[in-house]
Amino acid sequence: MSAIDEIQKRKTFGIVSHPDAGKTTLTEKLLLFGGAIQEAGAVKSNKIKKHATSDFMEIERQRGISVATSVMAFPYRDHQVNILDTPGHKDFAEDTFRTLTAVDSVIVVIDVAKGVETQTEKLVEVCRMRHTPIIVFINKLDREGKDAVDLLDEVEKKLGLHVTPLSWPIGMGQQFKGVYNIYEKKLVLFRPHSKQEEEEIIEINDVEDPLLDHHVGKRAADELRVELETVTHVYPAFDREKYLSGEVCPVFFGSAVNNFGVKELLDCFIDIAPPPLARETEERIVRPDEETFTGFVFKIHANIDPRHRDRIAFLRICSGKFERNTNYYHVRQERQMKFSNPTSFMASRKEVIDEAWPGDIVGLYDSGNFNIGDALTQGEKLHFKGIPRFSPEMFRRVINKDPMKTKQLNKGLDQLMDEGVAQMFVKELNGDKIIGTVGALQFDVIQYRLEHEYGAKCDYEPLSLHKACWIEADTDAGLQAFITRKKKDIARDKDEKPVFLAESAWVLRMTLENFPDIRFHFTSEF
Ligand code: G4P
User: Fold this and answer.
1) Does 365 map to a domain?
2) What residue's CA is closest to ligand 1, atom 25?
3) pTM above 0.90, yes or no
4) How far, in Å, CA of 468 to CA of 520, rounded?
5) If you take atom 31 of ligand 1, which residue's CA is the nearest one?
6) What separation in angstroms does the CA of 167 have from each of 22, 185, 217, 220, 498?
7) Rounded distance from Cα 3 to ligand 1 centre (Å)
8) CA distance linking residue 168 with residue 484, whole number of Å
9) Could you tell me if residue 418 is inside a domain?
10) Pair 305, 371 in one domain
11) Nearest Cα to Cα of residue 290 among 277, 300, 299
């Protein structure tokens, strides 16, 4: 198979949702279609969220499981589908943001009864910033929920997306009869708890066909006709180019747990979802069909085996062919490295691979050489864009509880930050270390892991900070003058970039007004 064919057959995507909308269930059904698993219940990845907010010990236990399901690859209709798992827990939102940099498209799952929830809003915002093509799957139609039109309105308003429904529900909850697949012009009848092969599909090219009344009853059929008439007037016809540029997203309705509407979703996804896309670097655009290999690390998973400080770095291949036992250039460290055991992830099975193609995710065993965002190439100095750090929402100062273990503490903190567990800022004035996170859970995780993996003990002093802003000015002198004026509120991030720590929204506003020459950014990439 030629390189182009290899690239074209890959579809790399992520499923995102608010916890409990049905992401795990949908993933599982997709894997069943792909033959990657044989039975339901095999995907446990994001069950983490089930264990409340403070049960981080449980999360530690689950980490071992979730590494196996971080990437799930399966073949389907001559394609290779790579699903990248995203943590459901809100405290791990930053992990999800980073994973989204490694996908080419996204499926958003929404609970028909709950509608658009906060976590979904945040994640879709990141997708929108990156123009990632999105398909929406409205789930749990076997339950009573919101009216379909109202839901689409909500999706448009809250998520800022334009939608084109490609299927339409007939009834809901107790009265749920199935969906009309607008994309394929077929009626799909709902039989609760049926197996995938039992889905009853009837070709109805024209909804005026009396066959429709025969199958769903006259009342439901008439309702559907009226609704479809409205749908065709209100929403634009499906346009793949607009989907690919992130302007319009197709919507499907179904019930993941009943395996209903999932095959339609998957088939349409295979037809329309983009193959591996080009990636931006600071230097140039990297196209997947370039001959030379490039890739970047978007996730690091530590401590697969607690006795060794092993880590797995997840590499997204962006161009060329990746080969085992071949020397590649680690751009940040400016040295050659080769990998004898690169692994791919086929659902819960891990296996060593000899080669991988753009769109694939490869796991590299790492003893501390990789940071998130690192590039591997065949010699070219490239820096991939789009792996930003976001301003944290909670801040605490690290207190070293065992000065004899200062070295271990510093090493542990550095490594945990490389993994992306949280962000650390070092105060310009006194060298204080401030940890910033999106959720309280990470503080416990850091404390626990420092003690168990590095033998260091820390405590925290809560800080009431509003935001960390990366700062920039037209001239070095201008920036330096601001840093000098605000010295007590300035810290450095891990790349030594200056950051302004704003105590409150008011302070931030005043500073913005008083220093018009300084630009304040809420992400590290601007
Ligand atoms: P998540 O990964 O997005 O957090 O959601 P998950 O798939 O774990 O689903 C959350 C709950 O919703 C599960 O029930 C799941 O069975 C249920 N669910 C998923 N799809 C549907 C659907 O189409 N219809 C209905 N009625 N329920 C659905 P649970 O009781 O929390 O867990 P479990 O014991 O069933 O695993």
Assistant:
1) yes
2) 140
3) no
4) 9
5) 20
6) 18, 9, 19, 15, 50
7) 39
8) 61
9) yes
10) yes
11) 277
Atom 28 in ligand 1: which residue has the minimum CA distance? 257
> Looking at residue 51, which CATH number applies to its domain?
3.40.50.300
Q: Are residues 249 and 348 in the same domain?
A: no
Statement to judge: residues 358 and 262 lie in one domain: no
Q: What's the CA gap between 514 and 95, in Å, rounded?
A: 35
**120 and 98 fall within a common domain:** yes
Supply the range of the domain harboring residue 419.
394-521
Residue 74 in 3-state DSSP?
A: strand
Give the position, in ligand 1's atom list, of the atom nearest the Cα of 139: 23
Q: What angle do CA 446, 451, 454 make, to 5 degrees?
A: 95
Q: Which atom of ligand 1 is nearest to the CA of 27?
A: 7
pLDDT per position in the chain (526 positions), as tens?
Answer: 788 899 999 999 999 888 889 988 898 888 888 776 665 555 554 443 443 334 555 555 555 555 555 788 888 999 999 998 877 666 667 778 888 899 999 999 999 999 999 888 888 888 888 899 999 999 999 999 999 999 999 999 999 899 999 999 998 898 898 999 998 888 888 887 655 556 678 888 888 888 888 888 888 889 999 999 999 899 999 999 999 999 999 999 999 998 889 989 999 999 999 999 999 999 999 999 999 999 999 988 876 555 666 788 999 999 999 999 999 999 999 999 999 989 887 555 668 889 999 999 999 988 888 988 899 999 999 999 876 677 888 999 999 999 999 999 999 999 888 888 889 999 999 999 999 988 787 898 889 889 988 899 999 999 999 999 999 999 999 999 999 999 999 999 988 999 999 999 999 999 999 999 999 998 776 6
18 and 160 assigned to the same domain: yes
If asked whether residues 251 and 284 sit together in one domain, one would say no
Residues β-bridged to residue 189: 178, 200
**Total number of domains constituting the chain:** 3
Do 141 and 244 lie in one domain? The reply is yes
Whose CA is closest to atom 11 on ligand 1?
A: 20
